[in-house]
Amino acid sequence: MATSKNNQGLKGKIGRTVTYLLNGQWVTRTIGDYEKNPTVLQLAARQVLGLVTILLRPVKGFINIGFALEIKNTFLTANNKATSVNILNAVTGEYPDQHIDYSKAIFSKGTMPLNPEFKVSLKDEGILFQWEPNYLLSGMLPTDRVMVIAYIPEKKYAFYETDGAKRRKGSFYLPLVKFKEKVTLHTYVAFIAANQKTISDTTYTGKLIW
Predict the structure, then answer these.
(1) DSSP classification of residue 37
(2) Tens-digit pLDDT profile for the chain (210 aa)?
(3) Helices 78-89 and 40-56 meet at what angle, rounded to 10?
(4) Cβ neighbour number for residue 39 with a 10 Å cutoff
(5) Residue 150, helix vs strand vs coil
(6) Range 95-104, long-range pairs (CB < 8 A, 24+ positions)
(7) Disulfide engineering: 12 pairs with which of 2, 92, 138, 181, CB 3.0-4.6 Å?
(8) Which residue intervals of the chain are DSSP H helices?
């Protein structure tokens, strides 16, 4: 059943369609069961979407900030945009053996330049991220804040910080929780302006065993 509120449009189900309000705009989409005999291309597309959905779930809070500027003045959500970007960039292989290439995953998107090199090392209780604090190009400021991720595929979990040390400090320590068994950490760094009006892409800074 569909309803109308304040004459702004119908909301709810009509047949095989559903209408709802998304970011201020009424959206209608088709619903229903998948075809009984999907093609290989359809199966491959579903697998890709499933892989990217799992990839982004542990870093939802990070991508809400990381893609905020990309979706400004659009009707997209941060998750919509991050999903689209990672479908194009982070999935490799051929169906049914498609998988995530963590070195190509992107969790923020912007125009701010990035340092050419980062050093990432394990410490007793976490990860130390280091960079050259005096490396400044147009669009970079000493007051920019670092954003970091330590992503653990085996646990479908990630440690991250969206408001880390200022660029001028040159390092940031991310504490981690220890596990009984060894796990893989995929690490990423980005920077965001203090006023959050500019941001960089995330850059992959390597794999560690924790």
Answers:
(1) S
(2) 444 444 444 445 555 566 555 666 656 666 665 557 889 999 999 999 999 999 999 999 999 999 999 999 999 999 999 999 999 999 999 999 999 999 999 999 999 999 999 999 999 999 999 999 999 999 999 999 999 999 999 999 999 999 999 999 999 999 999 999 999 999 999 999 999 999 999 999 999 999
(3) 120
(4) 9
(5) strand
(6) 95/40, 95/43, 95/44, 95/47, 96/43, 96/44, 96/47, 98/44, 98/47, 98/48, 98/51, 99/51, 100/51, 100/52, 100/55, 100/153, 102/151, 102/153, 102/186, 102/204, 102/207, 103/186, 103/204, 104/204
(7) 2
(8) 40-56, 60-66, 78-89
Ranges of each domain in the chain: 40-103, 110-209
Tally the C-alpha atoms within 13 A of residue 156's C-alpha that lie toward its C-beta: 7
pTM metric for this prediction: 0.84
What is the C-alpha to C-alpha distance for residues 188 and 107, in angstroms, rounded to an integer? 8
At 2, phi and psi to the nearest 5? -110, 150
Question: What would the 3-class secondary structure string for 48-96 be?
Answer: HHHHHHHHHHHHHHHHHHHCCCCCCCCCCCHHHHHHHHHHHHCEECCCC
Tokens 């069961």, residue located: 33
- The amino acid that residue 172 corresponds to is F
Residue 168, both tokens? 């001028």
User: How far apart are the C-alpha atoms of 109 and 98, rounded to whole Å?
Assistant: 24
Q: Name the residue with tokens 């394990």.
A: 122
CATH number of 110-209: 2.60.40.10
